[in-house]
């Protein structure tokens, strides 16, 4: 591999879809009275070689298959490469906004942890963005810095960035790079609006299991590894891309569900209609 190729390369990973997974209904396990279907936006953007999501019926006794991004991973680490990647994302999002009404990307960051008391964690080293099933961008910003186009992307109020704990990520990013990430939405908060049940502090892994019965693997060797390394490994790239992809995908699933409050109103209205019908039938028999 030449030096230039090391600076910018693509990691293409493909996984065959399960031919038996032809039902796009997502069931909520214990919340089966809140059925949902995967939104058409997800199905329309489904990559031909991306994995299929089967109906989710939770079973705590079984081990779910791993969720793994199956599209192309674009890795950039120089200022020129990151600038080009950010411009590509902006262009793609604008096209989808015009064609499908979408302007959402999954967002996540990684940094090198510290294990010594009193020593602060490292700066944000990696930023990953994913907006469909075909391609995710992993930017090694500890080496590139924040080029102009990336700053415009992050500060854009018209491009929604989604993730779990994304507000905290935005705070850290501002402290590290003095760039304000605008238009963010936390999936944990959204999940509590959409799922029937008690309010929870959802993590990305637990939400993945709840919605689509997939495991989001978080091996400590990678999660707590050195994200400031000169070049990211294929395992690090896969981990980063899958997290960003999961954020985008789960947002698409969640936004297709009715709010719990609205669902309760519909249920109450249906019960009222049923009661009125029963009373009317009883009166006609007298």
UniProtKB/TrEMBL annotation:
Keyword Hydrolase found: yes
Region annotation (Disordered) ranges: 1-31
Span of domain 3'-5' exonuclease: 87-259
GO biological process, one term: nucleobase-containing compound metabolic process
Any one GO CC term of the record: nucleus
Subcellular location: Nucleus
Pfam families in the record: DNA_pol_A_exo1 (PF01612)
GO molecular function, one term: 3'-5' exonuclease activity
Main localization, broad class: nucleus
The name this protein goes by in its record: 3'-5' exonuclease
Organism of derivation: Rubus argutus (Southern blackberry)
């Amino acid at each position: 591999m030449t030096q230039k190729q090391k600076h910018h390369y693509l990691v293409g990973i493909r996984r065959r879809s399960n031919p038996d997974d032809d039902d796009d209904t997502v069931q909520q396990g214990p919340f089966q009275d809140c059925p949902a279907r995967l939104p058409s936006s997800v199905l329309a953007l489904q990559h031909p070689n991306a994995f299929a999501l089967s109906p989710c019926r939770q079973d705590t006794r079984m081990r779910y298959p791993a969720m793994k991004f199956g599209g192309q991973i674009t890795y950039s680490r120089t200022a020129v490469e990151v600038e080009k990647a950010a411009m590509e994302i902006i262009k793609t999002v604008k096209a989808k906004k015009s064609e499908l009404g979408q302007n959402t990307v999954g967002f996540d960051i990684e940094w090198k942890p510290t294990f010594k008391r009193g020593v602060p964690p490292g700066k944000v080293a990696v930023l990953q963005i994913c907006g469909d099933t075909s391609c995710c961008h992993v930017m090694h910003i500890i080496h590139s810095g924040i080029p102009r186009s990336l700053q415009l992307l992050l500060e854009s109020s018209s491009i929604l960035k989604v993730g779990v704990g994304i507000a905290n990520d935005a705070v850290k990013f501002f402290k590290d790079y003095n760039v304000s990430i605008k238009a963010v939405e936390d999936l944990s908060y959204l999940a509590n609006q959409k799922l029937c049940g008690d309010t929870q502090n959802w993590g990305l892994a637990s939400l993945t299991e709840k919605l689509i019965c997939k495991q989001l693997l978080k091996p400590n060797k990678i999660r707590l590894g050195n994200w400031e390394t000169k070049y990211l490994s294929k395992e690090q790239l896969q981990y980063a891309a899958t997290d960003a992809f999961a954020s985008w995908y789960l947002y698409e699933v969640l936004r297709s569900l009715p709010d719990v409050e609205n669902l309760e109103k519909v249920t109450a209205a249906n019960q009222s209609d049923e009661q009125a019908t029963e009373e009317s039938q009883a009166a006609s028999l007298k």
